[in-house]
Amino acid sequence: MSTEIRVGLGHDTHRIAAGGPLRLGGIDIDFDGHLVGHSDADVLLHAITDAVLGAAGLGDIGEMFPDTDPIHKGRDSAEMLSLAYRQVRESRWNIVNLDCVILAERPKLIPWKLAIRKRIGEILSISVDQIGLKGKTGEMIGAIGTGQVIQSICVCLLSKSSG
Ligand code: MG
Fold first, then answer.
1. Cα(91) to centroid(ligand 1), Å
2. CA of 111 to the centre of ligand 1 (A)
3. What's the gap in Å between 129 CA and the centre of ligand 1?
4. Of 48, 66, 105, 159, which residue is least crowded by CB atoms under 10 Å?
5. Ligand 1 centre and the CA of 43: distance in Å?
6. Which residues, at least 6 apart from 14, have a Cβ–Cβ distance to it below 8 Å?
7. What integer is the mean pLDDT of 41-69?
8. Ligand 1 centroid, distance to 136 Cα (angstroms)
9. Phi, psi dihedrals of residue 161, rounded to the nearest 5°
10. Residue 68 has pLDDT above 70, yes or no
């Protein structure tokens, strides 16, 4: 029996607009801003989706769910991630682990990190200890540091057993 492994990388940016709640990592965070996008603009779930698809060589979120298609307007990113991972599983790949970074000046993410990891675990049917999550600020400079955008980065390791 041999095990093949693949790594994938995802990155995303969304602009912040006034008025909460903030949908991030599949949960609604009590905050005075929200992210703007064609779907629900969940920047973390989009980065995870791209990392998972990229590791499996299955393209990216924009190819699977084009933002020119009105069907994806306001769409729940948890549903998109779940559908993307279903395709990855159909190619017999399984997630070993994810490690994610959220780059946001505000809100402070420490109180929300465990809830986000639990929600991602629920969406992907993996355990919380397979999901790393870090919050970083932008040191009050640039688009992140002045609170104009939130960005996310995710790496994903997949494995496939054969033989
Ligand atoms: Mg996005």
1. 24
2. 24
3. 25
4. 66
5. 5
6. 35, 36, 37, 41, 43, 46, 149, 150
7. 95
8. 19
9. -100, 140
10. yes
Separation of CA 45 and ligand 1 centre (Å)? 8
Instruction: Give the number of domains in the chain.
Output: 1
Task: Give the whole-number percent of the chain exceeding pLDDT 90.
Answer: 90
Tens of pLDDT along 74-85?
Answer: 889 999 999 999
Residue 85's CATH number? 3.30.1330.50
Segment 30-57 shows an average pLDDT of: 97
Domain of residue 148, residue span: 2-162
